[in-house]
Each structure stands twice: as structure tokens, then as C-alpha cells.
Amino acid sequence: MKLLRILYLFLIFCNTISSNAQEPVSIHLTDKDGLPDIEFYSMIEDEDGFIWFASDKGLHRYDGKVFKQFSHPDKKGRSLFNLKIDSKGRIWCNNIAGQFFYVENDKLVLFNDYQKELKGQLADYNFFNKKLLIRQRDNIVCININTKKRESIFSKANTTSIGITLPNKYLFLNRDNNVVLLDTLFKKSKFKLKNKEKLTYFSHFTIHNNNVLIAFKDNILNKSLLVSLDIERKSTTQIKLPPKLKNSKIDRITIINNQLYIATNKGIFITEFNQGQLILKTHFLKDKMITDIIEDKNNIIWVATLKNGVFVIPNKNLKQYNTFKNVQIIEKKNDSICYLAKRNGELLELNIKTNKLHKNLVTDKTPIRALSYNKNNNTLLYLSDYQNLVYFGNSNQKRKLNKFGSIKSVTFIKDTTYLISSSSGTKVVHSKKSHEISHIRSHESIYSKLNKKIFLADVEGLKVYDENYLREPNITYNNKPIYGFNIVETNNGLIWVATYDNGILGIQNNKVIYILNEKNGLASNVINCITADNEVLWISTDKGLQYYNSNLNEVKVLTKQDGINSYKIKDLEILGDFLIYTNNLGVYGFNKTKIFKQKKPPSIYITKISIQEKPVEIKKKYVLNYDKSNIDISFNTKEFQSVKHTIYEYKFAKDKDWTVLREEVDFVKFINLAPGSYIFQLRGKNKFSKNYSETIKLNFEVLAPIYQRWWFILIGLLLIVLLTITYVNTKTKRLKRLQAKELEKERISKALVFSQLENLRSQMNPHFIFNALNSIQDYIILNEKKLARQYLVKFSRLIRTYLEHSQETNITLEEEIKALKLYLELEKDRFNNELIFTISVDDKVNTKTIFVPSLFIQPYVENAIKHGLLHKNGCKLLNLNFSLNSTNKKIICTVDDNGIGRNASEIIKNRTKFPKSFATKANQKRIDLINSTTSEKIEIEIIDKLDNASNPKGTKVILKIPIQ
């Protein structure tokens, strides 16, 4: 028996597999992530949380999403080096050509060009007392940053480096092994640097626990040396290095949580001080030449390499144990060791303390489907496609079990009783017999020691069996079957079932009392697997690995932002304080008490603002015209891989509630904003956290059109009032004018009536009536009854015509001519036929359609007879002619007689004292009245006709009457 145990131990030793030490999980950034280069020389984080990179391709800034390049048109060459930050928070860098740059207002600014002084040397530099110190071979040049003037130079300093800035001091080394100190007045003191080994080429300064660590390296022998310098005591101590580190070239040292992260040409060494020597904790990225290491404000570690780009360590507590990609099952053996079942049938044991692996003797070449370990009797249940067996660790013996189809799960009920689920059903297997409790295809089954029941998930739902294997009613949710595939029990007796579509259900007393899904904290309803950890539940989903405490109702999550490099987690297992899991990239684990970092709210910032789709300067307030009110606002967070894990919310204008944007949406648009003032508020949070970032506020004022602005409205109102007053006044005046006009019309109308009456009176004057009646009397006396009757008829007709015409304002020219003809016939009879008259009408004149004022022409005809022809001896001629003027707008009436003329008539009138005639005067008044109411005026022209001897031979009166 002893021989067998010795042989077994020998076999175990022979089967031990060397394994790498645990190393932090790192994410390798490549060009797929937007990385602009693979050769990086320096990194730094600025005060705003941006990460800056100096590389072979220049200067770049990572803003949490993209790498933005900064360049300058006068930059010589492409590469930039030595990223540093000054007292103003500006990022500085330089190049081999001797140019020094800094970043200000988001632009790369050329500080100065020292090519002539440096002559192709890549000069190191630093800042002290608001001065720029540049190492110029063996000299240190001090330059005033504000004036760019050289203020002093430490000649023949024999410096090996530019040195390091300390509180109120500046320290550097010279080639004589002296530590040189400068105070704020640049006064120099020095002391000897003592060491056991010969110093080689200086590489780096760093401060650790108030001491200065000085690293040296030998580029030829590929070795390093580390010295600790106590400034106060002016003493030096050489640090004992681990052999692997000593045989590497130290390039840089970064202090993180009191550990030294040492960048070398052989990867990263994580070390700790212990009694004057460095203890190696982890060595990883061994085949990479590391140039810089920094830890940002979110405790994420960034690693720059010379030829392999950048590596990011989101969580240094997340460790990788190996890179086996085909581990399907993890089964706990004790708090330090677990079984790893590989798909190829290989069974390994992993010690998470030492990270040692060795092959188990139980192995075959087919996939292992289930494992279950019983610590009480050191027994392992092993079920694969090839064989099912029980391995007894105390005796190293195996016992085969019957095959049960495609195995889904296996667990111990008692030390010698097992519960096995398969594609053909579920059985309870004893050492000598088995009992089938279900013949339905199963997914998983467990035995609850606290509830003393079997819980079985199969294609029919979630079933329950008591300790005697008697079936109880199925457990349902919302009166529907529960279709689960993974069942675990926490030590408070709760049964947890991972379902296909309802998240995770917590069951107590055969009733669902907890529901965990996306609505109340679950990252996703798509579950990979779950495991119990005392009263805690660990859950793997396709969007993260989660912790859930039902007692505290507390949910935490680990995502790719925390270093989970793949969500395709196949199995979870708890080993004491550690959780171990396997995915498609390897086996990983972490200390449960250290893994969760306190998530800080994301640092959100505005990346771009566009007005009318044109980018504008980012500022706090914008004043926009009403026709240019389309706004696009883009934003981002500075944290690593925060795009998929940050939820943005905003308020705009008078919103009372925050509007939540969809995942990965990092912009908002506002189109055609109405005139007014708007406040845009933006905040963000990690979607698995309740802590919000600081709120960003932007003010927008959209100006109204000119016609909507207050001053324009005021002016408009004043104009309206003024126009109203003007309009009212104008309207009043117009009404007054119209009223006056109407009154004038009324007056004129009355005057015209009066004028017509005067004309009528003139035409019916006593003299005319007396003469007419005398003529009738003469006819009667002479017994000329017929002539008397004819004359009387004409006279009565004339009187009646005058009376009819007096009722009208205008009459047709035809009626006027008839009246004139009747009048002239009476006058002709009175003159014993000595009066000869003619009335001629032009063919163009339509007497039936042309109107003239009533009783208007007769007075001029009467004047011609009374004053012109009456005193004429011999033949008395009177011609009336009617024609149109050239424009056809006026009728021209000509009264032409061959009388004695106006002058002779006036003499006779004065001598004989004729009764006063008012016909002409009345007619003139009527003309004036008519002309005052029309635009076309009545015109009268009187022509005295003379013969060759200038003797009067008659009178011609021309009347131009507008056609009515």
C-alpha cells in the first residue's frame, strides 16, 4: 500500500504542469480600437482625466472613445517624447529636432526651437520653480517659461539626467557620483552617492515613502541596479533585486498601492519592499518591452510598449490563471484547489495559491459532462461521454457507474447516494441500485439539504420531490411552468433557478418570492450560469458578471470596463474568498472582497456643438437667430470603455423629468427652436450605478424675428397708435370734406334748380309772353284764325316743353334741339318771316344718346335774337351747329348770327333802357355751379365778327359742353 502511494505521488509529480504566476487581466488595444500606433514612448494623465500618448506617430489624446491627434505645422519629424505636465496643467513634449511643445486651448503650441543648442540630442527636461530646465549634454539650461529667455546655465554639471523635482528642491546626479540639490534660489549643494556596485547608465527617478529611488541600467550587460536615497540623512542604500529583475533593463518605476510596477525590456515586474529587498509578486507581459506605466484617476493601469501598442489593466484584482480555452467545468475540492474539466477529457487540478496545475489520474479523451466532489469522503463523481465513475481519493480506487445517456448534472445526496440528470431522465443512484424519479429529458437537478427535497428542471417545468422521492406539485410562475436550466441553493434555504426567458427566480416553500431581471438590476435576462456563495448569488449573463445579495437587495456588476474580457462564461465556482470562472479565453479569478471598486460617476463633457450642422466653439451660452436654431450637441465620457456602460439623461427648457437616452447614444438634436431662452442640462451615470455625474449646463437664447422683439413691438404699437390717430384725423377730415362736399352739392343742386327756374323765367319772361300773345291777338284781329290757332298751339307746346325740361337736370340733345326749333319758329313768325334760321347736326353726333343740361342753350339763342338780330335791318340769319370735338368728349354748339354786334346792342340797350335781362347772368351762374362739380368743364367762347373794314357783322357764341 505504501508503495502504491509513493508511486501515486511520483506520478502526480511527473504530471505537474508548470504554470505562469497569476497576472492581472489586461486588454490589448489595437488598431481595431482606434489605436494610432504600436510604438509608444510616454504616457500621462492630465488634470481633466484625459490620457495622452507620445509615440512614433506623434501626440495623441484618448477621450474615452477615440484617439485625437495633435500636431503643429512647424513640427520637424513625426515622433514626440517625454510627456510632462507643468504648474498650469499644460501637457508638454519634445522631439529629437530640439523643439518643445505644449498643449493649450486644445491646440499644440510650439514653445521654442533649440536645435542649434541641442544639436540632435533628445534632451530630457523638467519644471522647477516655474522654470523650464533642459539637459544640454553636461549642462542644465534654465529658461523662463513666460519670457522664453535663458536665465542661467549650470555649466559642466556633468549631469547624467535632468533630475527630479522635490518640495522646494531640485535633485540631479552628476558623473562624479554626486547627488546635487538646488534650492528655490538655485543655490547648489551636493553629497556623495555611495553604492556597492559600479553605477551604470541612469534611467529613472521616482519617489517612494519620502525616499528617492534611482534606477540604473546597463544596456550592454542587460542588467539593472536600484538605489534608495534618503535626502534628509544624505544616505544611500542599494536595493536587492529579484534575479529576474536584476537581469532586465529597468526603464521606469510607477508606485501603485505601495507596490512597485517596474517597466523593463522583459515585461512588468510587480514588487513589494520587504526588509530592504524587493519581493517579486507578479511578472507578466514578459515578451514585451515596456516603456511607461501609469494609473489613472479611476485606478485603471495603462501600459505602453515599444512595439506592441498599449495594454490596459481595468482591475488589478482580476487575475488570469491560465489560457486554457476549452475548460468546461470547475469543481471545488477545497478553498485552494479546484478541478478543471476540459472538453478533450483532460482533468486538471489547479492550486489558486501557487497557480500550479497537475493532471488527475482520472482522465479520458472524450468531453467531461459533469463533476461533483464530496469532501466528506474525498470522493469525486466523474461523468464523460466515455465513462461514468466514482473516484475514491483516499484509496485511489475507481468504481464505474452505469451509463445514463447524455449527462446534464450530477450531485451528492449522501456520501454514497448520487442524483444524476441526463437526456433520458433523472435517477437517484445508490451504491448497489438506482431509482428513476423521472424519465423526461432533464436540464439540471439538485438536492436541497436544508429543504430535504429534490428540485428538477426538465422540459415540462420545475418539479419537486420529497426526501422519499415522491413528487409534489410543480412550481409555477404566473400560473405558467418554469423552464430552467441551472439550479442552486443559498445557505438561507432559497432555491434559485436560472430560466430561459424570465431572468432568475428565487423560491421558498415551493413559491416564487424573488424575481431578478433587467427591470430590477440584472444586466441581462440572458443567463449563462449561476452559483451560490453562502447567502449571495453570483450570476453570469451575456452583459456581465453579477453579485446579488437578496437580504440586502444589493446588486453589483463586473463588465468589460472592469476587465471581464469575455462574457461567454461557462462555469463559476467559489473557493473561500475567491471566485473562479472559465470562459472561452481561459481561467480567471478574483478575491470577492477586493474586486469591486467604488464606481465613480463618469466624467462627462461636451465634445461638439453644431449650429445648423456647422461646428462652433464650445461655450456656456449661445445667442441664435430664429432662422438658425437647429442645435446638435455631442458628448462623451473620459473613462476607459465607457461608451457601452454610460447612460445619459438630459433636461431641456421647462422639462420637469429627465429624458433617458438609449444605450450608446451620445448626442441630442433640437430642430427649429422657437424664440425664447432654453437651458440644456446633461448628466450621466454608469448603467449599473445610482451615482450621477456633475450636471453640465448650457444656455441657449433664440432671438425672435425683428417683428417679434419687444422694442419692435413697442415701436409697432406706437406706430399703430400714431397711424390710428392719423387715420382717425384723416378720416374725420375726409368725412368733414365729404360732408362739406355733400353740403356743397346740395347747395349747388339747389342753386341749379334755382338756375333752372331762372332760365325758365328768362325763357318765359313777360316780354316774350307779351310778344307771343300780341302776335296771337294780331292774328285774331286780322281774322287769321288758322294762323292764330297754329301759333297758339306752338306757344303752348313750347311752354309745356319748358315746364317738362325744368324737372330734369339733363335732357337729350334731341329734346334740346326740338325745343330750340319750336322757339325759333315762334320767333320767326313774330319777325314776319324776316328771321331765317338753320339747325345743323354733324353726322357723328348721336342726339339720342348725348345729354346736355336742360334749359341751357336757349338763353344764348334768345340773346342772339334779342340783342343781335332784333335791330338788324333786312335779312336776319341765325345758324345753330352741333358737332364733336377732336376727343369726342365734348359737344360743340355754335350760335352764329349776322346781327348788329355786341357793342351796338349795348348802346341801344343803354339808350332805350330795356327791361333788365338776367338770362345770360343766370346761365353763367349755372355754368359755374356745374363746373365746380365736374372735372370736365363747360367752356364758352364769344366771337365778335367783323368785316374787312372792321365793321360788326354779327356774333358767334361757341359752347363746349361735356358729353353726359
What is shown here, in short?
The chain is α+β, with helices and mostly antiparallel strands and 964 residues long. The chain has ten helices and 75 strands. It is elongated.
Report what the structure shows.
The termini are far apart. Helix content is 17%, strand content 44%. It has 964 residues and is an alpha+beta fold. The strands form 18 sheets. A 5-stranded antiparallel beta sheet has the order 1-35-34-33-32. The protein has a 5-stranded antiparallel beta sheet with strand order 2-31-59-58-57, with no helix packed on it. The chain has 10 helices and 75 strands.
Write a concise keyword list for the protein shown above.
alpha+beta
Low-confidence segments? 1-14
Give the integer mean of the pLDDT values.
Answer: 87
Number of beta strands: 75
Largest sheet: 5 strands, antiparallel
Radius of gyration: 61 Å
End-to-end CA span:
152 Å
Write the layout of secondary structure elements.
Layout: H1 2-14, E1 16-17, E2 23-24, E3 27-29, E4 40-45, E5 51-55, E6 58-62, E7 67-70, E8 81-85, E9 91-94, E10 99-104, E11 107-113, H2 115-118, E12 125-128, E13 131-136, E14 139-144, E15 150-154, E16 164-166, E17 169-173, E18 178-182, E19 188-192, E20 201-208, E21 211-218, E22 223-230, E23 235-239, H3 243-246, E24 250-256, E25 259-264, E26 267-274, E27 277-284, E28 290-295, E29 301-305, E30 310-313, E31 318-322, E32 327-332, E33 337-342, E34 347-351, E35 356-359, E36 368-374, E37 379-384, E38 388-392, E39 397-401, E40 407-414, E41 417-422, E42 425-429, E43 434-438, E44 442-448, E45 453-458, E46 461-465, E47 471-477, E48 480-481, E49 484-489, E50 495-499, E51 504-508, E52 511-516, E53 527-533, E54 536-541, E55 544-549, E56 554-558, E57 569-575, E58 578-583, E59 586-591, E60 604-611, E61 614-616, E62 621-624, E63 631-637, E64 646-652, E65 659-660, E66 667-670, E67 676-686, E68 696-702, H4 710-763, H5 766-781, H6 785-805, E69 810-812, H7 813-830, E70 835-841, E71 851-853, H8 858-869, E72 876-884, ...
Parallel strand pairs: 62-68, 70-72
Antiparallel strand pairs: 1-35, 2-31, 3-30, 4-5, 5-6, 6-7, 8-9, 9-10, 10-11, 12-13, 13-14, 14-15, 16-17, 17-18, 18-19, 20-21, 21-22, 22-23, 24-25, 25-26, 26-27, 28-29, 29-30, 31-59, 32-33, 33-34, 34-35, 36-37, 37-38, 38-39, 40-41, 41-42, 42-43, 44-45, 45-46, 46-47, 47-48, 49-50, 50-51, 51-52, ...
Helix pairs in contact: 4-10, 5-6, 6-7
